[in-house]
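Task card 7
Instruction: Convert sequence to structure tokens.
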Amino acid sequence: MGDYKYNMPPPFQGIIGTCGGCCAGCKQKCYVRHSYFQPSVILGHTINTWGLRHEPWKVREDIAEQLSKGKIDIVRINQSGEVENVFQFAVWCELARRFPDVKFYVYTKNYAVAEAFLVGDQVAPNFTVNYSIWHDYGVNEYRRVMGHPNVKAFVYDDGYPISLKVDAVCPAYKRGPTGRVTLDHNITCEKCKLCFDSKVHVTSCIDH
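Output:
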């Protein structure tokens, strides 16, 4: 979010986004980045980022309070941005263990942190870790953990050939006869479940 110069209320001034050094290739096509013409979206993401950096325990308990009401059964972690460190990943692992009937899932390029928790057997069965694959970025890292039951791969398909076998294609995005990609709003992640509640290992999604 460093490209955007909106006036934020304290203490949220100067917050830079979480993608760090992993977004050089996909920055221009990032669908979240394209939503940043809306100040309200930027503010919401900024507050979430600040919370995870400075008060992750409060974020954990705030989410736990919502989940304890029993009305939520699927949680997508980090709707935008990236897991920055082991402390943040530990928050999600703990929440998944505390709420075994809730499905948690995340997309990440922070492979080192994810692998450390996966290899250490600290990821609960109800927490799916989707390795985000961009061209060749992440392919080797995914192969190191591809046999783990909690791991899937999510491939951004812009026509670049990759060496992974794709098992399924996200049905929400379709390319028409003119090449234009459209979103079917009737197909939601909660209905599809490819990324967190299926036997599919590698899912691709059309460039959008």
